[in-house]
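Hi R.,

Here's the chain you asked about this morning:
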Amino acid sequence: MEKVNKWLTGRPLGAYCAAIGLAGAAVLVVAFVTVWGTGWGKDLFAPGAVLLTVALTAYIASRGVVSWQEQKKRDRESREFERREKVYSDIATFMLQRFLATGRTPDEVKEDRKRDSELRTHAALWASSHTVHMLAYWQSLLSAVDGNNLTPTQSELLKQSFGRTLVAMREDLAPNPDDRDLPRSVILKSIFND
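And here is the predicted structure, written out as tokens:
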């Protein structure tokens, strides 16, 4: 009984279809009983069959129809995903540009910090805690060397931090179990030429 109640409350069109189907079945039962017992009631077969057909057709149609609320939710989720994807793409591109830039003036460094801060602020509103931590770690490493030439050790630390951040952003966008098989080193090799 609990399953029937859940089915009826979770699918309002399904409940109407079930009600029409039950009415049609009841009319057919009455028709069979009256025809069998008395011989009259043949006129009830057509309405009963029509009600059953309408119920079945309406149920099948209702399964294919997406409600306005469901479609609105899907559209909102799609727009949110696209927005997150754009912010993460902007952050990753900007991180790469900052990583590769050397010998910049103090004004250029200041502008970069401002842009970086704006991008990370967008992500901080909805990114997972892991991604926020990776962005913060990247920023702490970069702040120590910003505007200066990188030593090989600093370069490697920044590269690994960049890779960790990319992995975290990928997990935020599409938590796919197959991504667990994609190591950070492969992601970094797809970006850097070393």
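One quick note: Residues 135 and 165 are 6 Å apart (CA to CA).

Cheers,
M.
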